[in-house]
UniProtKB/TrEMBL annotation:
GO MF annotations in UniProt: methylglyoxal synthase activity
Highest taxon listed in the record's lineage: Bacteria
Active site: 73 (proton donor/acceptor)
Enzyme class: lyase
Record's protein name: Methylglyoxal synthase
Family: Belongs to the methylglyoxal synthase family.
Function (record text): Catalyzes the formation of methylglyoxal from dihydroxyacetone phosphate.
Keywords tagged on the record: Lyase
Enzyme Commission number(s): 4.2.3.3
UniProt xrefs under PROSITE patterns: METHYLGLYOXAL_SYNTH, MGS
UniProt binding sites for substrate: 14, 18, 40-43, 67-68, 100
Length: 186
């Protein structure tokens, strides 16, 4: 028997795609048992209710975040950057402009930066969950090394230049203020 590997799975869906994600979770519920889930507010409550109805004896491990437009997308992004998400199933609505579209773009960008599997539709999600790698206990994602980017200013005197510039500017300002101050009357 294969070793079970517990995956940390993010679940997000735009309003027009909530039913699709709920159905996908129900369809794949046996493969999802035992994993840890993080989901934005409304989506998470609905999926948890559906899974609990289908499998009343299973204790599902769900952490429900805020609603996406109310900060849930940022919370999910923070979990991705912190290494707490292995897969993000984010069913997006390509036909409707979202009021928090910048958050959506940022979230999918973070998946790319952190090399996290992200599925934005049901077809991709079907392929991912049916991949042998999904249940392969030996599979580990390769975390990109951005240390050169993070330390790109290490050998540059930016801080010293900024401090020197501000001190010189303040000294010049004080000198000008002294020159403009009339002498006290005697």
């Amino acid at each position: 028997m294969e070793d079970f590997v517990k995956r940390n799975i993010g679940l997000v869906a735009h309003d027009a795609n909530k039913k699709d994600l709920i159905e996908w979770c129900l369809w794949n519920s046996k493969k999802l048992i035992g994993h840890k889930f993080y989901s934005t507010g409304t989506t998470g409550h609905m999926i948890l209710a559906a899974l609990s109805k289908k499998h009343p004896d299973v204790k599902w491990d769900f952490t429900i975040l805020n609603s996406g437009p109310l900060g849930g997308d940022q919370q999910m992004g923070s979990l991705i950057v912190g290494g707490s998400i292995d897969y993000l199933f984010f069913f997006t609505d390509p036909m409707t402009m979202q009021p928090h579209d910048s958050d959506v773009r940022a979230l999918t960008r973070l998946c790319n930066v952190e090399n996290i599997v992200v599925c934005c539709n049901r077809s991709t999600a079907d392929h991912i969950i049916s991949s042998p790698l999904f249940q392969d206990a030996t599979y580990k994602r390769i975390k990109p090394d951005f240390s050169s980017y993070a330390h790109r200013f290490a050998n540059k005197p930016l801080v010293e230049e900024a401090v020197k510039s501000v001190i010189e500017e303040q000294d010049t300002k004080q000198t000008l203020e002294k020159e403009d101050t009339p002498a006290p009357e005697k």
